[in-house]
Design brief:
four-stranded antiparallel beta sheet; 0% helix; 280 residues; mainly beta
Length: 280
């Protein structure tokens, strides 16, 4: 997911509007393999939306963490999430590159990737199973002014939308260290602001902000290569964030300049988008 000052954002789940956060990602740990039940106990006190790390009266033994990328102070905030009531407890911050605009966690919950808009790179972190802490593994170069990062459902491929160089950087992941290896790049129609892979892992979608379009790519499940379908779907003005529902049936695009959300139905066989309409 991508959020930026002055830009719109959308996600497939409800979220509070937190001004100082640029991106947010949710990580689940320790779920029971049979029932899906978590291992949380205890309750947390009301933090009244505080982000300064104030303690709670009865700390939860939580199996979930929330991460927020802060572009103004070049950091990633880490919170414990009480799964019984949704409250957050601030834990600490990890240093990032310059202006982290977008973060994503691999499907196994082992690694976090941050696209740094100002330093033109991706920071790779390992995630502590014990306390959610982030340890820097390394940094990998991107194109110019990366704006969005996503990972495919298999966790093998990472994609970065480079707003300034009109491209999508394609990486393979090291399953042991989480480090990224640059494989190639795909050309876009103009200033990509957001990239996402559908739940099936067969298609990728790119919101091109300056060309007011959504571009569709076939994703090679073996190599990760993106092949454009050469059909750009019209968006409203200034599309800057795209999200797909968990079932992979609908896509939602926020349009920064026209101040609305475009809704599309996804053809699950071809990946094609058909407009359902736009809402304010």
């Amino acid at each position: 997911m991508t959020v930026r000052p002055g830009f719109s954002s959308i996600s497939a789940f409800n979220q509070a509007k937190i001004r100082q956060f640029i991106a947010i990602a949710l990580l689940s740990f320790g779920l029971n393999g049979c029932s899906g039940g978590g291992g949380s106990s205890g309750t947390t006190a009301d933090t009244n939306g505080s982000t300064n790390g104030s303690e709670v009266t009865s700390p939860a033994i939580s199996s979930r963490y929330v991460y927020a990328a802060n572009s103004e102070d070049n950091s990633i905030s880490i919170y414990a999430l009480d799964v019984s009531n949704g409250r957050l407890k601030y834990l600490e911050k990890a240093t990032s590159g310059i202006q982290p605009y977008s973060i994503v966690i691999d499907p196994k919950g082992l690694f976090l990737y941050a696209a740094n808009h100002g330093s033109n790179n991706v920071s790779v972190y390992s995630i502590s199973y014990t306390n959610g802490a982030l340890t820097l593994v390394g940094n990998v170069a991107t194109g110019e002014t990366p704006a969005s990062i996503t990972i495919d459902p298999s966790g093998k491929f990472v994609y970065v939308a480079n707003f300034g160089s009109n491209s999508i950087s394609i990486y393979t992941t090291d399953p042991t260290t989480g480090m990224l290896n640059i494989m190639s790049s795909a050309v876009t129609r103009g200033s990509p602001a957001s990239v996402i892979v559908d739940p099936s892992g067969k298609f990728a979608y790119v919101a091109n902000r300056l060309s007011n379009s959504i571009e569709i790519y076939n994703l090679n499940l073996t190599t990760g290569w993106l092949a454009s379908l050469n059909t750009a779907v019209a968006a409203e003005t200034g599309p800057c964030s795209i999200e797909i529902d968990p079932a992979g049936k609908f896509a939602y695009v926020t349009n920064n300049s026209s101040n609305n959300v475009s809704v599309y139905k996804i053809n699950t066989q071809s990946g094609a988008l058909s407009s359902v309409g736009a809402v304010l």
